[in-house]
């Protein structure tokens, strides 16, 4: 199958799609913060947990853009991966790298999505990333089936969470344990060896959830098996306890394709059948809710997680010389290689431990005739990274020579306060966050060195809302964007501190959201000016040194949905990134040399001008059918905006892509059953989705069929 080329007029096609989004303003307004109806006891006594957006009525008090994917949306769309779900939210680009969404790459408002390193990820208000301060790259993500809702917050409200406030904040909400006995059992199968099963059982304010999923990846010699189990219990009215365990066993390579491999051996070619990824995560948390008095609520999170992964691979990039110069030259020539003849394998062995305590206080009252809704919090957060690399001398070795043994520690103490002050239909919300971060690094190899450093930062914000009527809110805000540097970037292997600061920006928003009987709408204009934007080289396989520069991003987000009495529905989530400019050349932190090809006025890599998710649905008599198209305009893969593909596959344009998905659900209420049929990538289109470590391609068409049986409940 040939790769799709660039359209004859990229600008014309982008404007046409954008005009479609704009024309649906009255038809497909934005999803508001709705949630599935809570059990009666939960409605009377709110579940002890931290929500970022909250429910429909809370939107009036949020001085920024906010969106929610609710349980029904996630279930009825039969989203296969987390990336597929997140593309339904405005302002986000989410791309897969292996076809299963195991490590979704999520970027907000033009920021590079690689490893989701510029996005804050939470679960019930608790950090989901294994090292959000010291190494925010994401090599783990639970299956989307675990959650009943996804909250997205951008703008000034992010200062209440952190540490990342530069792009967006995602908070995944797990289901509330039911009071009465209820549950469900589901099973599904399909092409690409897809199989999934799930059991959920709840009652007496307890909930047990287990799921199993397996499928082949986007290329040959790629397959994964996932097991995910979680338990949640509410004690009385004040305490929620959670525990979850995730395990992944994958045959999975890290390297993409060279241009010659793509052309001569095909897009599904992958010789590295000896590469393995095995990982697990155990997370626990407790949330205590205390109504301290009239107008005073104290919510405290205590959390701990351990994540461990072993990734054994024979190649990390298309230019990797690990297997010897003959392997690299053969790949550049497009010749088949025999991985069993490569007497080398590298084990990147990692263990992360994270724990913390975060009390958050909400006070409502009045002073001198002014109303106040004050939110304040403290957080003590600690991370430990144990990083080793073992080089084996056979293709399948799991032992060998220890060449890296690194201990990295991060301790962070933070505090925030924000105060919403209403004036009739108006409200103003000033806020500020303070971060104190201490980092340490120790080389545990013989003769290794140690070093430490610390960083203090103030992060102010100001938000404004005007709600002239219950169904309409206008909002605006400005806040300081902040993201701490990684421990390995601050402290070199020699123990010396590197002169690299945090990412800092000034972020502006102006928008409106409206609701009607059968529709909702959200429109946001944004502008993010970066004084320092960090380009992390090792995330891109080491091809770009640690570098920084000034940048500017600006655009428009539009999202919404509407439903007609006939059962027809429309939805849209569109982002026009009009500007994603390098304001200065990106320069290496050490030495100050400009990154090759970087120049003022060039577009940022992986910042498409237009991305949109559009859907039409029909629901009647137990049938729910949906058709969706996801469009991403062309992107550059490097700071030089190289138009033609390079021999190693790591540079060049990523052509525009459109993916169609279809799903049909049929409820059989008398039997307690729901059956569904889904087709992902309906037209079986092939696209280049990433060039970070070589060419990665989109997954082929996937057929799925499944059935769910539910019992109990109301």
Structural class: mainly beta
Rounded Rg: 25 Å
What is the helix fraction of residues, given as a range?
A: under 10%
What's the story with the biggest beta sheet? 22 strands, antiparallel, barrel
- Overall body shape: globular
Number of domains: 1
CATH H level, superfamily name: TonB-dependent receptor, beta-barrel domain
Mean pLDDT: 90
Low-confidence residue ranges: 1-44, 537-542
**Residue fraction in strands:** over 45%
Amino-to-carboxy terminus distance? 51 Å
Q: Judging by the overall fold, what is the CATH architecture?
A: Beta Barrel
CATH class: Mainly Beta
Count of DSSP H/I helices: 7
What is the fold-level CATH name, i.e. the topology?
Maltoporin, Chain A
How many E strands? 34
SSE arrangement:
Elements: H1 10-23, H2 40-44, E1 66-69, H3 71-76, H4 82-86, E2 92-95, E3 105-108, E4 120-123, E5 126-127, E6 149-153, E7 169-173, E8 182-190, E9 195-203, E10 206-216, E11 223-235, E12 239-251, H5 259-265, E13 276-293, E14 296-313, H6 325-333, E15 345-367, E16 370-392, E17 401-423, E18 426-443, E19 450-469, E20 472-483, H7 487-490, E21 503-516, E22 519-535, E23 547-563, E24 568-582, E25 587-588, E26 610-620, E27 623-632, E28 635-636, E29 653-654, E30 657-668, E31 673-680, E32 688-690, E33 696-697, E34 702-712
Parallel strand pairs: 4-7
Antiparallel strand pairs: 1-6, 2-3, 4-5, 6-7, 8-9, 8-34, 9-10, 10-11, 11-12, 12-13, 13-14, 14-15, 15-16, 16-17, 17-18, 18-19, 19-20, 20-21, 21-22, 22-23, 23-24, 23-25, 24-26, 26-27, 27-30, 28-29, 30-31, 31-34, 32-33
Write up this protein:
- The strands form five sheets. The chain has a 22-stranded antiparallel beta barrel. Strands 1-6-7-4-5 form a five-stranded mixed sheet. It has a two-stranded antiparallel ribbon with strand order 2-3.
- The protein has a single domain, classed as TonB-dependent receptor, beta-barrel domain (Maltoporin, Chain A), CATH 2.40.170.20.
- The chain has seven helices and 34 strands.
- It is mainly β.
- The model is unreliable at 1-44 and 537-542 (pLDDT under 50).
